[in-house]
Structures are given as structure tokens and as C-alpha cells.
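Lab notebook, bench 4. The sequencing result for the construct came back, and we need a structural model before the next group meeting so we can plan mutations. Quick request posted to the team channel:

Model the 3D structure of this chain.
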Amino acid sequence: MSTRNTLFSVAAICGGICTTAAIASDHRDAPYTQLNPMSDIGDSFIFRGAQTGGLTMSFTLNPLSGSGAPGTLGSDEIKLDPKLIYMFKLDTDDDAIADIVYKVRVHDIDGEAQRQRLELRRATGDDARSNRWDGEDVGEGFTTALNHTLEVTTGTNGELLFVGPRRDPFFFDFTTVQAPAALAIKQALAGGDHLPAAPTSIGAFGVSDMTLITLEVPELADQKLNYWVVVADEDGHAVDRMGRAGVQGIFFVDPPVGYNPNRYLPVDRSYETVGAFNDAYNATSPAEGIAKFGDQFKFSFERLEVEDAQLDDIVDFYSRDMILWNPSEPAGYPNGRSFAEDAIYWTIADVNPFFYADPTSFLPRSSDQDLNLDKFPYAAPSFNQAWKPGVPVRPVAPIYMD
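Done. Here's the predicted structure in C-alpha cell form:
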């Protein structure tokens, strides 16, 4: 998809992003998820995995863990909620309705602070459209505790599943991009949230871990599909969802202090706050995007001075809020999203032609994290990973598959 010729107002975009209620990705995007970090999806990823050559899907939870930020836990404490269901949703016929879903559920273990027993199910048909614990059992195993044995569950169809603490893969370098949106995000991160303003992955959210769920499925790598992730409660009610990077964190934010609330509050006045709107958004599916939230998307892009001739197309593209995976096209966001990609940079380039990226810098095109994209589960180890002394330095327990 080519970069759109969209015009932005500097004042509007700065006001729209400079807020602590919703960060530039999807971390802490709504009141429910702020109170329940084990339900809070930070980012979602989909790419071809090197371990099996299969389709790798991943998402993160428990944002800002290990950072010492108020209300967060240590890297050796974060885990999943046994009362929640964690889902990878796949639409194979482009109707924005799930056709294949992988569902993950955990159970606490007496005497274990972080390690949990987990189950994996694969759902199709009506079970895929449901957010309940439906589907066929395809695997069971354990989550990985920090500085303990690597636990990878192997499914009946060759699936690989990892759940455990890792460094937050989110990466956005705002120092080598000059654009109103980039300047606003820099202010929000460096000023409003008091985080480092450096051209590194640490400069985005600081020293921060998350719980990572990564699933690799060999049979799906060569199939065109749409992808998103969902967290639901025991009754099958979705409490968070995410497809593309930063949709809520950029476009649905609380009114910044000193700005006119009428420029930010939901168009549908049945939602008294942007937070209430975000909770409702998280509870629905991509198929409901235009009907339920199209007016709000349209309002957001009109406020950002999108040209009338392009408005319908851009609203349709973003309101579906799914990541396309098309194996016949070159991989790269928005066709998939790897741990190394700066998806926020792509969004800025897509919606704002008035930006400049330093051509001499490798940033922001690729993360500087210590990723291992050859070995499952690919993401960098926790900031609090323990290492054995000696040369070369080795972790106290394996962190990648052989």
C-alpha cells in the first residue's frame, strides 16, 4: 500500500498523541486494561518463523513490567490470568470474521510463583467465532519462568508455543524522523511519561519487559489471511483486541490538558469518555468496525485534515484493524509485522507526507534489540535475564530452542 497524501495539522496531531492515558502503541489503551495488566495487549506480530518455516504469531501483555513504574510487577512475577482466554484470530476469506483460532489458557501451580500449566486449542467454524473456551485440544505444557528452563509446548500439528517474560519488542525511533506526529510522540514519551528520549528501543518505553505469547504453526505459512489477537473473560466477552500497531494509542486518546474536549470525545455520545469508547471497541470484532466505529474513525481523520477524496478509503483500511499476511508479497508491515520492524514509523509515513527520515541512519527501519530471529521464540531476553560468568557470556538457562 503506497503512502497516502494526507495532510496533518500540527496542533491537532500533537494534541491527539500527547497523553499518558494511551501510549503510542496499544499499551494501557483502555480503563479495563489499565486495571488488569494481564489482559492488556501491548503489540501483536505475525511473520514467517525460521524455526519451522511456519507462520509465527505473537502478542505481549503486562506492559512496562520490570521498569519499576507504579502499578507494574517485576519481570519474575508477571504471568497470565487463569480466568482469561488468549486468542490468535485468523480470517482466511477476507470477511473480517475468524475462520481459524488458536486459544491459550493457563492454570496456576501450587508453590510456583510464575510458572503455569497451559493448554492450547484450535477452533474452526462456530468455535472460531466464539470467544469461549471451545475447539479441539492440540497441546498442553508449561509457561517459562524467568531464569528457569525454557518451556516450549509442541502441538499435535507441529505447533510451537511459548509463554514467558521477554523484553518488550515494541520499537519506535522518533529522533531520526521529523514530522508533527513524531514530535508529538517524542513529547509524550520523553516529557509526559518521563522516559528516555534516545534513538534506541530503550528510548521508547525505557527498561521494560512484558509477558510474551508466541505461536508458530507450520501449515499456515503459505496461506493468505488477516490476523488479530483477542483476550476474553470466562464468559467469552472480549476485554482487549489488537491488529494493527497503535490504532487506539494514536487515534482514540483522552483530551490533553488545556485542549477542547469536544475535539476528542467520542462522536457517539452514549460513550461519556474516550476510555468508555475504547472499552467498547475492545469488546467487538473487526467485522463490526465500520458499522459501530466508522463515524469515530472518520471524525479522527477529519480532525487530522485527511482530504475528502481519500477519507472513505483510509477509514475502511484502519477500521478493520487487522494485519494482512500475504505470502506472495514481500513481507514487511503492513504485510505482517516482525519483532524488528518499526510499525509506528510506517503509520507516520502512511498518513503524513511531511516527514523526513535521516537516510544515513539505520533507524528507525529496524530495531536495535538483541533479537535472535533464527531461533524460536525469537524475542530478546528479559532485561533481568541472569547470565553465567565467562566468555562467551551465556544465560543461566536456555532462552532459545536449539
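The longest helix spans residues 289-303.
Will bring this to the meeting.
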